[in-house]
Specification:
- By secondary structure, the protein is of the alpha/beta class.
- The chain has a domain at 11-101 and 181-254: P-loop containing nucleotide triphosphate hydrolases (Rossmann fold).
- 38% of the residues lie in helices and 20% in strands.
- The chain is built from 14 helices and 12 strands.
- It has helices at 3-10, 56-64, 91-100, 109-112, 119-129, 136-146, 152-157, 165-177, 195-212, 223-229, 247-252, 257-267, 269-274, 331-342, and strands at 14-23, 30-40, 45-49, 72-81, 84-85, 102-105, 183-187, 215-220, 232-237, 240-246, 315-316, 322-323.
- The strands form 2 sheets. An 8-stranded mixed beta sheet has the order 6-7-8-3-9-10-12-11, sandwiched between helices. A 4-stranded antiparallel beta sheet has the order 2-1-4-5, covered by helices on one side.
- Strand 7 (183-187), helix 9 and strand 8 form a beta-alpha-beta unit.
- Helix 5 packs across helix 6, helix 6 (136-146) packs across helix 8 and helix 8 (165-177) packs parallel to helix 9 (195-212).
- Bound molecules: iron/sulfur cluster (SF4).
Length: 346
């Protein structure tokens, strides 16, 4: 790898700094994402994991500055894409950055594809929107080949209802990558698909990451998906990051009790089949967070008089990673993980 290439990889492609997102205005505003920072480098897949209501999808919308509700807005922080703050761009520049620099795929491809338009035309749409008119057909066929869809010319003429769920998701990925963006944000890209189709889509994303030197921010509720695909992982709970690390140490020895609970869920096939999460209770309603540590009502090792009154900061751990827990350096946290592991099937 050349020195210049190495330098490019050291610089973050995406750098989110201190991002906060509010829904509503004035005194009625609810803070649904609070002071979140993360990075994605070229050629790297980074997971953003949490239960429904944790704020992970709102983070994705904030990065794109494309909120589903006009009441949502970036209240603080920066979203730097190759050094440019997306949150500060004029609407026209932002539209140009979307697609050209960053693409996005979502959970349910059916909602994002026009049922009355052949899929080849839909893949060409971002190219047309960015003023490209030449070589459209060739680029569409190239993208369909890249998505491993056999008989690309025939697929291009088909309508969404003629394709399977997995093929439709491949069409969305093709459209997202049409302008060769450096970053892909994938929000639960496999959740609506059955298990074997999921595996194919994840494999495809990982191949594209390597071949295109693509940075991927993969948003999911499923740590198992992250284990298969990502190099680094960020865990969110109640609008905050609670743990971040590279994948191997986080899976071997999670430090935050919430991460321990998530991992316990995926490693125990019974709880995975029944409820996905073996953590009792549910994420609090957005913006109505408990005092102290937001996880304390569900935490198996919460300490009264500390965890219910004092909010833990996100601190770098010894070695690698960071976590937001008063007790992560005490034996209580390691013991809790040990006990949880002992209840899992070997
Ligand atoms: S700070 Fe307390 S309640 Fe929060 S995760 Fe750590 S031990 Fe549990």
């Amino acid at each position: 790898m050349s020195q210049q290439h190495q330098q490019q990889h050291a610089e973050p492609l995406l750098e989110v700094r201190g991002l906060s997102v509010d829904i509503g205005r004035g005194s009625n505003a609810l803070r649904v994402v609070n002071d979140l920072s993360l990075t994605v480098r070229r050629g790297e897949a980074v997971g953003l994991v949490g239960e429904s209501g944790s704020g992970k999808s709102m983070t994705a919308f904030a990065i794109m500055n494309l909120f589903p509700s006009p009441l949502a807005r970036v209240a603080a922080g920066q979203v730097l894409l190759e050094g440019r703050d997306l949150a500060q761009l004029a609407p026209a520049d932002l539209r140009s950055a979307r697609g050209a620099q960053v693409g996005m795929v979502f959970q349910d491809p059916t909602s994002y594809l026009d049922p009355l338009m052949p899929v080849g035309r839909q893949i060409a749409e971002p190219l047309l929107a960015h003023g490209r008119t030449e070589g459209l057909q060739a680029r569409v066929l190239e993208l369909l080949d890249m998505m491993e869809l056999p008989n690309a010319a025939r697929v291009a003429r088909q309508y969404p209802h003629e394709l399977s769920g997995g093929m439709r998701q491949r069409i969305l990925i093709a459209a997202a990558l049409a302008m060769r963006p450096a970053l892909l944000i994938a929000d639960e890209p496999t959740t609506a698909l059955d298990v074997t189709v999921q595996a194919g889509i994840l494999k495809l994303l990982m191949r594209l990451r390597k071949e295109l030197d693509l940075g991927i921010l993969l948003i999911t509720h499923d740590l198992a998906v992250v284990a298969e695909t990502c190099q680094r992982v960020n865990v969110m709970y109640a609008g905050q990051l609670v743990e971040s690390n590279t994948v191997a140490p986080l899976f071997a020895a999670p430090r935050h009790p919430y991460t321990q609970g998530l991992l316990g869920s995926i490693l125990n096939p019974q709880s995975r089949a029944q409820a996905l999460f073996s953590i009792p209770g549910s994420v609090p309603i957005a913006g109505h967070w408990p005092e102290g540590c937001r996880f304390h009502p569900r935490c198996p090792i919460a300490r009264g008089g500390l965890c219910d009154t004092s909010a833990p900061p996100l601190l770098q751990a010894n070695g690698s990673g960071a976590d937001r827990c008063h007790l992560s350096n005490e034996p209580a946290a390691a013991d809790a993980w040990q006990r949880r592991k002992e209840t899992m099937p070997s």
